[in-house]
User: What shape does this take?
Amino acid sequence: MLFKVDENLHPEVVVLLQQRGHDAISVRTQGLRGASDRVIADICQREARALLTLDLDFGDIRAYPPEQFPGLVVLRMSNQSRPSVLRVVERMLALLDREPLLGHLWIVEEHRVRIRHAEDQDTP
Assistant: This one.
């Protein structure tokens, strides 16, 4: 799967994704640091990359309709330490075998994952 890792996540997240066989690049390495959310969203759509971010704005389905994206993964964590984020991303990756990401919004918390399907009417 193709991922873009937002600048608010540690570079080790990119390494973890790559170690698990995914094509992952970061906003930082593309020179997009400080780019607006809309710019990042547009680039993800153009590159067909799912976005992995801590930015809760991407959980707004009115601004970023999941069905228009290769996937949106918003980490909503109270503990955003590097080890905690890496553990949660590791668990999230295990779900990719069972749940589709394409056209969906995943809200990933420490102990659960909520998946917003395109046909769902309620916000997550």
Observations:
- The helical segments are 11-19, 37-47, 82-95.
